[in-house]
Amino acid sequence: MTPEEKARQKIDEKLEAAGWTVQDKKDINLYASLGVAVREFTTADNHEVDYALFVDGDPVGLVEAKEDNQGVNLTNHALEQNMGYVQVGLKKHEEEKDRLRFVYEATSIKTLFVDLKDPQPRTREIFSFHRPETLKQWIEEHEREQATLRGRLLHFPELPTKGFRECQVSAIVNLEKSFSMNHPRALVQMATGAGKTFTAITSCYRLLKSAKAKRILFLVDTKQLGEQAETEYKNYQPYDSQDKLASLYNITRIQTSNISQDTQICISTIQRLYSMLAGEIATLPDDIDEEYAPLTTKTKREVQYNAEYPPEFFDFIIIDECHRSIYNVWRQVLEYFDAFLIGLTATPSQDTYAFFNQNIVSEYTHEQAVDDGVNVGVLGTYYIETSITKHGGVVRPNLDRQIEIRDKRTRKQHWETSDDDMEYGANDLDNKVVNKSQIRTVITALRDSWHTWEYFRMRDELPKTLIFAKDDSHADDIVAIVKEVFGKGDDFCKKITYKSDKEDKGLLYRFRNDYNPRVAVTVNKIATGTDVKAIEILIFMRDIRSENYYEQMLGRARRTMSEDELKQCTPSAQAQKLGYIVVDAVGVTQSEKTQGNKKTGGDKKPTVGFIALLNAIAQGDISDETLTTTGTRLEHLEKVMSTTEKDKFHQLANGVALNKVAANLKHVYDEDELQHDICIEYPQYGAMTEDEQKQARKKIIKQRARQAAEPIYKKEVRELLFKVSH
Question: Above 90 in pLDDT, residue 144?
Fold first, then answer.
């Protein structure tokens, strides 16, 4: 058997698996089934196509088969052969050559496809052949709508901006532009709390209503996130309808091995879908956490063709927390389906950017979210150093008030930085706070210090606190010691980890909304993706393997909360949530990974008084430290000012809001904005000498600083700010 004959044997099997009846020309019966694939069918000019595809007896497509070592030629030689056949048509069917729109090129391991009715037809790789009923449906849709799905993606109605954040509008509009250009993958980067799911649901609604998408999958990686998404989808109120989304479209969270054919929005964990496609139903729990997943997927099992859920089953797949779902066995699920892939994440890595073909349709960072009041930032970092002596734990606490660390890398630098799965710090960092005496030392330091911190001095109760533990046993020790040191009962501190799943839902609700528990200890369960707005203290008693994961963990405390909301679980709170404190017992904040030379900014002058900072700017200080520190202080001041005080500032500052002034000061040294301004004023910047470039950069910084600090130059503004800060 020749290599091409071996390839055709495999192609026959794939066609048959997809529901096609494969025939030799001598045995032809075009009505033997809905879909018939005829080998070596004669063209109008007496050549032979490898396979001619017929649906309901009508010619609809062609397959050009090649041996496996010709896979690299599928997109040129094989496609050209097919297009030649399309132009002349099939013998006895010359009048129907316009129907030959579905064109495939295949080896035994690779299949390419293009729909010639698409606008700007473009070949794409697919897992296997489409089913005959799918092609029939596409033919009927085109006759009815006068456009394919990709044709319908060219035109969306204007998105009303009322009720949407600017970052949400930008994400939806740019995503639709990406669809119109037939980009198969797109990445939406949006800070925690900025409304990623709301944005995704709005996009789903527009795809179903305007583009008439058949079915959309919202993919998560934990059961809890699936339940949360189901609630948000069903309660979503479309901007142009009186009915909830659940009344307009069928929404199903997949909890078994069956998906109803009339479902239009599916919500599933990637673990469950993988099990279904790999033929291992129910072997993977669909609430498994990120850290535990590798334990059950060490044996790599390839996904298999599933006739019930063929590759064309979904038109679009939205991948929530996509930075966790593009690796190893999970990636097979995403590459099985012939669907547009949309990734959602607050913390993309280099691998994330690469998977989505560097098609970043929207970027809304945590720093931008803090500027806009969508997120809160770090109020301070409390570093606790422990060591074992014959007397037990020795603690040397040091309050490092770096209020907000700002990433000064350009977007390009950020996208090119690969840090996933890289350890930082010493190898024994995980073990630093495992000894019970050390744990007690850290918790005692917390007990004796939290009420002295500036932002909590008026509090009667410990702010809601989340402790990150190394493992489940470590978490048990921490829980016991927290209750002992604080002299509290069992309700005061609870463990919420993967292994305590039966109680998790109720515990999480109480941690979010009730007075107790005040402290939660977790390994991974609420390290990523879980919403607990009330958290105001994060304690690290475990090492973090990557900068991305560290950012995700910080994200648990970054959500905003109004004064009334905060008082429901923390009654003595006297203002809205201003930010959060990091208590570092293992050195993660001291690592170059988290605040090395790539990151600067924040409150770099904690010993300098507020009025001194304002006066320094008025006298011409434009250093990064002074501007960013002042911007950070103004940011927090704005959150506690009265409406009357804000209006007064607005008036004195010639119509500029205080939060805008704060953001402008913090962004003077933003590398992306700096490079943009330099390129505009100095088009030949790249050809300048090093000295000339330094002078040009210095000039642009001075211009940006002067513009940002303009309101501060007014004496009346400085006097008002000093008055309201006391």
Answer: yes
